[in-house]
Amino acid sequence: MTASDGLGRPVLLGRRPILVTGGAGFIGSNLADRLAREGHDVLVYDALARPGVESNLAWLKSRHPQRISSVVADIRDERGVADAARDAEAVFHFAAQVAVTTSLVTPREDFDINVQGTLHLLEALRKRNRLVPLLFASTNKVYGDLGDVQLEETNDAYVPRDPAIRARGIGEDRPLDFHTPYGCSKGAADQYVLDYARSFGVPTAVMRMSCIYGPRQMGTEDQGWVAHFLIRALEGEPISIYGDGRQVRDVLNVADAVEAYLSAWRRIDAVQGRAFNLGGGPANAVSLRQLLRHVEDLIGRPVDLAFSDWRAGDQRYYVSDTSRAARELELRPPIPWRTGVAALARWLADERGLKGQATRAAARPQAAEALP
Ligand SMILES: NC(=O)c1ccc[n+]([C@@H]2O[C@H](COP(=O)([O-])OP(=O)(O)OC[C@H]3O[C@@H](n4cnc5c(N)ncnc54)[C@H](O)[C@@H]3O)[C@@H](O)[C@H]2O)c1
């Protein structure tokens, strides 16, 4: 049912949808599913630019035919963005050019999508005469390559010399230091999102995410490495490692990430204008080598590795200090990485008709060793 607003434009009567940009993508589709399950109407805005994500959208629509609607359009389309945001109750902004590698090839396109696209959304919300929360997916890349963090090298991982960093990880007080066009574009968007709270009172919050993994991830060599490693291993293909494989990340299951976004939205009055580091934290810190060992345990055979040069801006060590997010967003302890990765292996094997390949996952969830 439609009516018109003061300018003669049609407006929806009744419930206002939640806008999820990039809602066909990995994190966006998991969040959209959760919102729909909670009874919200969800408008997915996505250009379907990432290969394979159309299947996520089809999955969402088949699960929630009454709740999920979609606009296939580009975040660079200012008018399209404004139309999609016009009736939104809240906005979760995930649409992005997501790969550092691509940003080095086409930096202007990366800028247009990540900075201008975000500005289109912010402007649409600033011009609304009601306060509409916006939650933004930022990245740990805003802290640069952390080259000043002194590291020790063990057999299979980098470990910080500083016991405080080792125990807690990298906090939000770390100075911003954008590296690579992707780091610059996401970092600029991150700052615009925070400033729209400061300058205009738009209720926004920023999640600086480390590595998120889980079902519906179309992992490739360029982005989504946990899923990518599992897919290659399950299919018996070799895996390229850039650098020495000792680089460490804190991985977080997408179910926990979704919980954090929802929690920030519910508490937006208290957390607006704030940024949170969101990852698995020190308990879920794992090097590429350690993750690969776990993958080998899960599939029951060794994987072929090919080592290449380090990639630009690659952090040797990044682990989020999640204490602010845990405290202020009242988050439960995250799913342990071995359990989550085993579940993802089973999901990927099922999706790809490789049943039986990942069954050891259930049998040996504690097979890999802990980080030293
Ligand atoms: N996955 C992670 O570990 C991680 C870590 C840090 C930050 N992030 C950020 O989280 C967000 C979601 O990441 P993801 O892993 O779900 O990625 P994803 O690639 O699965 O999702 C991004 C979605 O955006 C869409 N998209 C791309 N360009 C678009 C455009 N020009 N207009 C409209 N839609 C467009 C894609 O089709 C895709 O569905 C991104 O902003 C990313 O930078 C992700």
Topology of this structure?
Blueprint lengths: L1 E3 L5 E3 L5 E4 L4 H12 L4 E5 L6 H11 L4 E5 L5 H8 L4 E4 L6 H6 L1 H20 L7 E6 L11 E3 L4 E3 L2 H6 L11 H21 L3 E6 L1 E3 L11 H10 L4 E4 L5 E6 H13 L1 H4 L2 E5 L6 E3 H12 L5 E4 L8 E2 L4 H6 L8 H15 L8 H4 L9
Parallel strand pairs: 3-4, 3-6, 4-5, 6-7, 7-10, 10-14, 11-13, 12-16, 13-17
Antiparallel strand pairs: 1-2, 8-9, 13-15
Helix pairs in contact: 1-2, 1-9, 3-5, 5-7, 8-11, 8-13, 11-13
This protein binds nicotinamide-adenine-dinucleotide (NAD).
Word description of this protein:
This protein is α/β, with parallel strands linked by helices and 372 residues long. It has 14 helices and 17 strands. The strands form 5 sheets. Strands 5-4-3-6-7-10-14 form a 7-stranded parallel beta sheet, with helices on both faces. Strands 11, 13, 15 and 17 form a 4-stranded mixed beta sheet that branches. A hairpin with a 4-residue loop joins strand 8 and strand 9. Helix 1 crosses helix 9, helix 8 runs parallel beside helix 11 and helix 11 crosses helix 13. The chain is globular and about 55 Å long. The relative contact order is 0.13. The N terminus and C terminus are likely disordered. The protein binds nicotinamide-adenine-dinucleotide.
Low-confidence stretches: 1-13, 361-372
Radius of gyration: 20 Å
Q: What ligands can be seen in this structure?
A: nicotinamide-adenine-dinucleotide
Strand order of the largest sheet: 5-4-3-6-7-10-14
Beta-strand segment tally: 17
Q: What is the overall silhouette?
A: globular
Q: Sheet bearing the most strands, described?
A: 7 strands, parallel
What proportion of the residues is helical, as a percent range? 25-40%
What is the number of helical segments per DSSP (H or I, 4+ residues)?
14
Classify the secondary structure makeup into a structural class. alpha/beta
Strand content: 15-25%
Span from first to last CA? Answer: 60 Å
Average residue-wise pLDDT: 92
